[in-house]
Amino acid sequence: MSVINDVSEGLALQNYELKRSITWKDAFWVASGVPALVLFSIGGIAALVGSPSWVCWTLSVIFGFFQAFVYAEIAGLFPGKSGGASVYGAAAWVRYSKIIAPLSLWSNWLAWTPVLTVGSSVAASYILANMFPSTASIMTAKLTILDLGMLKEGLEVRINAVSVVATILLLGTFAIQHRGILGTAKVQTVIGLVALTPLLLIGVVPFITGDVVSSHFTPFVPLSGAWDKAGWTLFLGGIYLAAWSSYAFETAVCYTREFRNPETDTFKAIFWSGVLCLVAFTFVPMAFQGYLGQEGMTAPGIVDGSGVAAVMATMAGGSGVIGNIIIVMLVLALLLGVSTSMAGSSRTLYQGSIDGWLPRYLSKVNEHGAPTRAMWTDLGFNVVLLTLSDSLFVLAVSNICYLVFIFLNLQSGWIHRIDNAHIKRPYRCPNWIMAIGVTLGFVNAFLLGAGANVWGAGTLVTGSIALALILPVFWYRHYIVDKGVFPAEMLKDLHTADGLLSAPKAGWLPFGALALGLALVFGANAYFHGSLW
Question: How many Å from the N-terminal Cα to the C-terminal Cα in the chain?
Fold first, then answer.
């Protein structure tokens, strides 16, 4: 019986590893779905901010580009780990707090996984809008399950045609992901070449044809009418929400454990993904606004996203059959973003389980090296989210989690330099860029406080509750399942002596950074909104 158990355990361990099967180019194409995230909220931000909305996108993607250099350095420290920057950041914080470290992973996953919901919902709305008139019964019918008006006016749990079609799209994405990262990368390379074409055309063609009208950028004031407190609140709310999309190319470092040559592939993957996003998130919003103008940007179909594809097809010079082809390509671009999210967020769950932060059942992978249980968890969670009636609210709450992750991981850059100065760095971020990254961590804390409640009075509280859910999850895994001892895998790549973490060297500084970050969040919220509700 003992021999049988040993053999069974050995067979199980054969499926316990991700595979080193991709290069930075494969990771680039997996991350190429990120530019499509601009479609999620381009109308909502324009309708909120007004003519300066394109600046929100430009500033946000520039912030994200500088931040990426910090992630590239810390990712290089962990060639044996998957899951992205939150995993590498957690390894910095664990010496100082067993609670802050898992919060890094949890906040990242809660930020990334709703891409599945929002992306599939927008894609489903494009498909349905192209097939049926807005007055058709299939477009208006719904089954209301629960009223959530106490969180935000009009928010409810319901089932309608969009949620059903979106669920079908998610299942198709899951089938692709099931083949492992190399198979996913091959599919995404083909889809990416097709899907990114209309986005690039949308960002270029209107400037060439003269359809970008200069008067559509004036007056350069928020919709409140002036650069007063109310105007700045709207503007900061726009930058806040844009971050959820424009920072997201950091997912390119999620696959370090699957790179054939992680020492060189990690930096190349995130750098070239960042260049792609700089172009997309700068020119697409600018062209979109210059084409439509403020009146067009605040039309109902633009605000809720359902009419964005049709407008973009016209912008790219398409009508009739060509217009329909462009819409199909935009749907593929959205599904590319969904696939990118499922690949990255599932690996965050997987590595969080391996390292002892999250439930043990998430550490299972299939014969292709795909973390299937984490993927099923992603899928199930998002099928529930698809029943919520307001995807922008889901996005705004998700972004609270995202900016918490961003703050923690930008601070982890200098913490790693203090505590892990002895570890070889395949890429070392220039000191001046590291300083910018640390500063941007506090800028993001300010944006969180100033911008979150622009999207609903209870947004900040709802996001805080979502973040707090990690406490019972981690407590059960660490203290009940693991008896207060971290798995050996958590210490992998940290070059520890005798499997023990070295003593922290940064003293009170990490706690001072946390205190300043919290002060900025709640101070900005108090100034711009007065209360949490």
Answer: 61
**Cis-peptide into 114, omega within 30 deg:** no
**Residue whose structure tokens are 């330099």:** 417
CA pair distance 251, 34, nearest whole angstrom: 9
* Residues 266/76, Cβ–Cβ less than 8 Å: yes
> Are the C-beta atoms of residues 408 and 93 closer than 8 Å to each other?
yes
Residue 133: the pLDDT is 82
Question: Is residue 4 classed exposed, middle or buried when 0-12, 13-18 and 19+ CB atoms within 10 A define those classes?
Answer: exposed
CB 98 within 8 A of CB 422: no
Please tell me the distance from the alpha carbon of residue 401 to that of residue 460, in angstroms, as a whole number. Answer: 10
Q: What is the pLDDT of residues 15-64, one digit of tens each?
A: 445 667 678 887 777 677 778 788 778 888 988 898 899 999 999 999 99
Q: In one letter, which amino acid is 314? A: T
- Give the DSSP per-residue string, 197-220: HHHHHHHHHHHHHT-S-GGGG-S-
Of 170, 137, 160, residue with least CA distance to 388: 160
Paired with 388 in beta bridges are 157
CA dist., res. 464 & res. 98, Å (int)? 18
Tokens 């208006």 belong to 140
Q: What is the distance of C-alpha 263 from the center of its chain?
A: 24
- The token duo for 116 is 């599945």
Contact 310, 134 (CB under 8 A): no
DSSP classification of residue 235: H
Q: Which two tokens stand for residue 195?
A: 């899907």
Domains of the chain, start order: 24-529 (1.20.1740.10)
Element (H, E) at 416: helix 391-419
**φ and ψ of 222, to 5 deg:** -65, 170
Percentage of the chain lying above the pLDDT 70 cut: 87
pLDDT digits (tens, 9 = 90+) for 179-203: 655 555 566 677 777 767 777 778 8
Residue 202 region, left (φ>0) first, then alpha (ψ -120 to 50), else beta? Answer: alpha
Residues in the chain: 533
